[in-house]
Amino acid sequence: MKAPLMLRIRTKKGDKLLIYEQVILWIMYVVINFGLFTNNLLLFGTIALVLGIVLITLVLKSYSYLNIKITPERVEIGKRKIPLDQVREIRVLKINGPTADLIVVYEGGETLIEEVKNWKEVLYIFQRYKENIV
């Protein structure tokens, strides 16, 4: 089996934020269509604009929870992009039922990723990527 080109590290917070974003987009769509239907586009367009601003703020504030992935070249945790050859290990700190807290140890520090849903897959893919480097 080949390793995938990229694996998104799924966390509880990240999945929850993704659902919130999808709900806000759906509400914006419904509000605009209702404004077109009732001929009050200015009022409902303004409400949709406010919802859009809330959505953009949510995405910008939660970028570190939504952009956690591992690729053959690097591990991305929010805005931090760590080359894979600098990552020493990814290990499990604590298992909480179906989720686990992972620690990414790299040259210059370590980072904790809380409540990872696909932690077994992350550890397996990381080992495959590290084998390909050596």
What does this structure look like?
With 134 residues, this protein is α+β, with helices and mostly antiparallel strands. It folds into two domains: 10-68; 74-133, OB fold (Dihydrolipoamide Acetyltransferase, E2P). 50% of the residues lie in helices and 29% in strands. The chain has helices at 12-38, 41-61, 63-66, 119-133; strands at 7-8, 68-70, 74-77, 80-83, 87-96, 99-106, 109-116. The protein has a four-stranded antiparallel sheet with strand order 1-2-3-4. The longest helix is centred in the N-terminal third of the chain and has 27 residues, at 12-38.
Summarize the structure.
This protein has 134 residues and is an alpha+beta fold. It has helices at 12-38, 41-61, 63-66, 119-133; strands at residues 7-8, 68-70, 74-77, 80-83, 87-96, 99-106, 109-116. Keywords: Membrane, Transmembrane, Transmembrane helix.
The CATH level-2 architecture of the largest domain is identified as Beta Barrel
How many strand units? 7
Radius of gyration: 20 Å
Could you tell me the strand content as a percent range?
25-35%
Q: CA-to-CA gap between the ends? A: 19 Å
Helix and strand sequence: EHHHEEEEEEH
